[in-house]
Amino acid sequence: MKISQNTYIAALAAAPLMAVALAVGVGTFTHPAAAASAGNSNKSFAVGGFTPASGAMAAGHVAFAAQVNPNDPSRYAGHVVQEDAVGVTRSGPVICAGFSGNNARIVWKVNRSDAGDVGKARRFDVTDNGEPTMGMPMDTFSDLGPCDDGSKDPMMQCSCSFPSGATDPLLRGNIVVKTP
């Protein structure tokens, strides 16, 4: 049986492409992942995306980023999005963040909510316990819930000081806390 000229040319053209695809695939799965450097910032930050395994937010989802403003250490930047197990979604800006070692306390103001709590402040603690082990996250999260009565100054009731560390394990996801 004779191979046609077109099939032979197509096979020759595809061979280098297949070799490149194989090299990329093997390289992707055999080299350890490297975390991005924190750069030259000497300011504290915390970031994460996860599903808590227990506690008030069990089976919900949380994504957040919080940092000390590099130009003004008395100000904070960041955003939080929470969806609880029954589907209530809240989101808003970070209004303060406290850091101690691998722990962070995030206080944020609800700007959008399905639950009618717009304008109130909420807070949570996170603890960065390192990289996941055998695919299981080691980090922890504690939802401390609302921390004010909706007054004009939520900082009067919400403290970012002394993050005590989180206690609820994660089902999946990761948290990174960086302090100088």
Structure write-up:
- The chain has 180 residues and is mainly beta.
- The protein contains one helix and nine strands.
- An eight-stranded antiparallel beta barrel has the order 1-2-3-4-5-7-8-9.
- It is globular and about 40 Å long.
List the topology elements.
Elements: H1 5-30, E1 45-52, E2 61-68, E3 76-83, E4 89-100, E5 103-109, E6 112-113, E7 121-127, E8 140-146, E9 168-178
Q: In a few lines, what is going on in this structure?
A:
The protein has 180 residues and is mainly beta. It has one helix at 5-30; strands spanning 45-52, 61-68, 76-83, 89-100, 103-109, 112-113, 121-127, 140-146, 168-178.
Order of helices and strands: HEEEEEEEEE
How large, in whole angstroms, is the Cα Rg?
A: 23 Å
- Give the proportion of residues in helices: 10-25%
The N- to C-terminal Cα distance equals: 71 Å
Shape assignment: globular
User: What does the main sheet amount to?
Assistant: 8 strands, antiparallel, barrel
Please mark out the parts with pLDDT under 50 across 5 or more consecutive residues, or reply none. 7-40
Give the strand order, joined by hyphens, for the main sheet. Answer: 1-2-3-4-5-7-8-9
Mean pLDDT: 78
Structural class of the helices, strands and pairings?
A: mainly beta
Percent in strands: 35-45%
Number of helices: 1
In total, the number of strands is: 9
